[in-house]
Amino acid sequence: MSLEISKQFPIQKEMLSGEHYVQSLLHHASRLGIITPQQTEQLQLQTAQLLQKQLIRFTHGESSSVKTQTAQGILLSLLFTVSLALKDMTEIEAQLKALTEEALESLHTRGREILKVKVLRAKGLLNAVKHSRVSTENEAYNQTVDTAIPGFFAMYDLYYAAHGLPCMIDYPLAIEVTDRAGIEFIEEYLQRLAWENAFCVQFPTEELTQLLTGYHSDFNELLENITLLTLSNALGSILLGKGSDNITLTGEDITLLMGRLAGLTSEEFARQMEIAKTQLPLIRGAEDYLNQCADRIIVRIDAARQGLGPLPLITAKPAGAVALLFSDQERMDDEHFCSLTEELRSCRDTQDKLLLVRREVNSFGDLTDILGAECFFGQEYEQLFGSLKDFELVLLYKTVPREEDGTLHRTEAEKEWQQALCSYIDSLDVIHRNTIEALAAQIAAG
After folding, report:
1. Which of 101, 253, 283, 313 is most buried (CB neighbours < 10 A)?
2. InterPro entries of this UniProt entry (predicted)?
């Protein structure tokens, strides 16, 4: 039976599943009455017959010995392969016409040829990714490029598991691949990674390394996307007038930028962001993708300037240095510590207490111990925190447990000073507060 095609076709591509394309296409076509029950039944019969042939090939003539789970997997592979033949047609009307008027086995054969071409193209993309790889010791990145994806090609079964993904990919893209299966997932993943590599390698390796270690001293062990971090600082550099070829920012740069952004109206902010995006060193063919990445960063920048989160920019960690890492001095002995805490508790003048702390406390560990020893109370915390330098506040703020860590191992005194610290930081102006929070996210307290 021929297929009736309306001028305003009711099925659009965005309605369909990329992962289960044939199934979703037939579901919508049947629901909307575009194909008849008889056509649906005929397709089901052809599918069953083609599956039977596949099972016979798989078992070398003993299809009755296949487990249900295996048969279901081969069916999904069959439909995935047919989907490739359909997706090769531009119009959905033509796809449904092919499904209802051509033999399903013919579509499957055509899909398999497309599948082989996609495998070759994906292997070429992997070579491109390796050639343009970012010079990093990040384990997830290197394991993905060197082991996981090559392992996919070694294990991929395009005949009976074309929809499968026989590898574990840990490295996250700037924008993750969704609604794709099998070779289509790998092909899209590699294309995006190639674009990301091409963007990142425009910057000097030394600057990139300093950026990543500035983000976290153990960056090599993190599951973090390198491109988003690089793109964030590139945007920041452009907004500061430092050029599009720079990703090295200082704490002063970040504070200055926060001040500038906080005073903008929504319209002024949006206009500046659009101008900044046009100055990014984008890669030909990757403009849309990298602009989408930039848009994600801009959302976070907008939230930061409104006091809803830290500014997503990173201070560089120079080679051989420890960025914002507190090098604790020798701690005082127990006798000295007990004597000092007793003196602090008995002191009635807050300013005298602050002078004692400044004169006697030289290590970060002693400072946190004194805070937990019931030496300060109420409004005294605000004066103490107000007397500290920003980096000291940052180090203290870094020690406050995240909400999900719970409070089972904290004393009441520890809870009190940590809550007072959070309240103090919340009371700061938006620029100062976001600077503290941004720096706290980048340090490791020793």
Report:
1. 313
2. DUF6179 (IPR045751)
What's the DSSP call for residue 327?
A: -
Both tokens of 377, joined, read 């109370």
Give the span between the Cα atoms of 236 and 242, in whole angstroms: 9
Query: What CA–CA distance (Å, rounded) separates 342 from 374?
Result: 10
Look up the domain containing 296 and give its range: 205-305
Specify if 8 maps to a domain.
Answer: no
CB 104 within 8 A of CB 82: yes
Q: Give the total number of structural domains in the chain.
A: 4
What is the SS3 assignment for 318? coil
Does residue 225 sit in helix, strand or coil? coil
Q: Could you read off the pLDDT tens digit of each residue along the chain, which spans 446 residues?
A: 445 444 567 888 888 999 999 999 999 999 999 999 999 999 999 999 999 999 999 998 876 678 999 999 999 999 999 999 999 998 999 999 999 999 999 999 999 999 999 999 999 999 999 999 999 999 999 999 999 999 999 999 999 999 999 999 999 999 999 999 999 999 999 999 999 999 999 999 999 999 998 887 788 888 999 999 999 999 999 999 999 899 999 888 888 888 888 888 999 999 999 999 999 998 889 999 999 999 999 999 998 888 777 778 888 765 544 333 333 456 788 888 898 899 898 888 887 788 788 778 877 788 888 998 999 988 888 888 887 777 778 878 877 876 555 555 678 888 899 999 888 888 887 767 777 776 676 554 33
* Closest CA relative to residue 115, chosen from 147, 148, 82: 82
**Final residue of a domain: which of 152, 181, 200?**
200
